[in-house]
Write a structure and sequence with these properties.
By secondary structure, this protein is of the alpha/beta class. The protein has ten helices and 14 strands. Strands 1, 2, 3, 4, 5, 7, 8, 9, 10 and 12 form a ten-stranded mixed β-sheet that branches. Strands 6-11 form a two-stranded parallel ribbon. The protein has a two-stranded antiparallel ribbon with strand order 13-14.
């Protein structure tokens, strides 16, 4: 009886091990493969977390605040990437990216407006926003609106006193930009419709922050600034009765605006390309661009080419 019971128990144990053994082995093999499979990265792709390199972006002081702010957020996401942002004006940005001294040339103007055709043809245009510019005056001046003809008179030296345009008896002090400035080129092209000479006695300053400070502190001063620099410390005048705001720029009724370009010489390398793609991402366009007073390029209802032609 005992021998029969032992035989039965032996047979049950043998069948149980035979049934369970292969499955356990399979499960063990699968468990060993799973982590490796989850971490696999195609050989031709670099994980975003491993993006590394350095970028030098030079040029437009009007675009500088946006690039500076976005670059800090990009570097937070990619600790192995270093981005240096410098001003100097659109002409400097275009010249340096063309000459290979900078990875990105920031500019308020099309490359064709500053460089010869051969140099401009080597550059790739990346438009990241729109910037509008407004005439600004010392807050003590009682003028609220200036026509195109009045602005031309002021910046060509034919009008020298505010009483000639409806203000008080006070000498006009011009705060202009140097000839290399993209802001000056845009203002002359779309607000004045003509180039101007540097007038004796006028102040020249490229830094938008310094221009704002000079206009704020200098009696009778007039200059022009990107909307991103406007605040209550200075007075913004209408242009031919039209306010400089996003709605009027987007629908084409306010003409003093330009694209913000970030040019590269040829197609950008991996890290520059990633940064440029970040500049036009929803994160930057819906937050930084709006917060800093620029206009997302996607909101424009009109387009402008290098010759200034407007289309809808």
């Amino acid at each position: 009886m005992k021998k029969s019971l032992m035989l039965i128990l032996t047979l049950v144990l043998t069948f149980t091990l035979a049934a369970c053994g292969p499955n356990n082995a399979a499960k063990s093999n699968n468990s060993a493969e799973a982590p490796g499979a989850a971490n696999e990265t195609p050989a031709n792709e670099t994980p975003a977390s491993e993006l590394s390199g350095s970028i030098l972006a030079v040029g437009s002081s009007a675009l500088q605040p946006l690039v500076d702010q976005a670059s800090k957020k990009f570097m937070d996401q990619h600790p192995k990437v270093s981005i240096q942002v410098q001003g100097g004006g659109s002409g400097t940005g275009l010249t340096q990216v063309s000459g290979g001294q900078a990875d990105i040339g920031n500019s308020d103007v099309f490359a064709e407006e500053k460089l010869d055709a051969a140099q401009a043809g080597e550059l790739v245009d990346h438009q990241v926003a729109v910037v509008a510019m407004a005439a600004v005056i010392n807050p003590e001046i009682t003028v609220d609106n200036l026509t195109k003809d009045q602005l031309v008179g002021i910046f060509t030296g034919k009008i020298t006193n505010w009483k000639e345009v409806g203000g008080q008896d006070q000498k006009i002090q011009i705060v202009n930009r140097p000839s290399s400035s993209g802001t000056r080129a845009t203002f002359e092209k779309y607000a004045l419709g003509t180039k101007t000479e540097d007038l004796q006695g006028s102040i020249q300053e490229d830094s938008s922050g310094t221009v704002k400070k000079l206009v704020k502190e200098t009696p009778g001063a007039i200059g022009y600034l990107a909307l991103s620099y406007l605040d209550d410390s200075i007075k913004v005048v209408k242009y031919d009765g039209v306010e400089a705001n996003e709605e009027n720029v987007a629908n084409g009724s306010y003409p003093v605006w330009a694209y913000e370009h970030m040019y590269t010489k040829g197609e950008p390398n991996e890290v520059v390309k990633a940064f440029l793609e970040y500049m036009v991402s929803d994160d930057v366009q819906n937050n930084d661009v709006v917060e800093l007073g620029y206009i997302p390029a996607g909101k424009m209802q009109v387009k402008r080419d290098a010759d200034g032609n407007i289309t809808k």
